Amino acid sequence: MSETIHGDTQLQPYLTIDTADNKAVIAFIAQQMTDALIMDNALHSPQRSAVRPEHLPKGVQAIESQLFPCSRCNEIIARLIFVTEINTARELHEMANKFELEAFVSTYPIWLIGAPDSDDDDIAKHLTLQIAPAKGDVYYEHPDIMNTRLIKLDLEHCLGNHKPLQPHKDLH
Question: Coil, helix or strand for 82?
Answer without folding.
Answer: strand
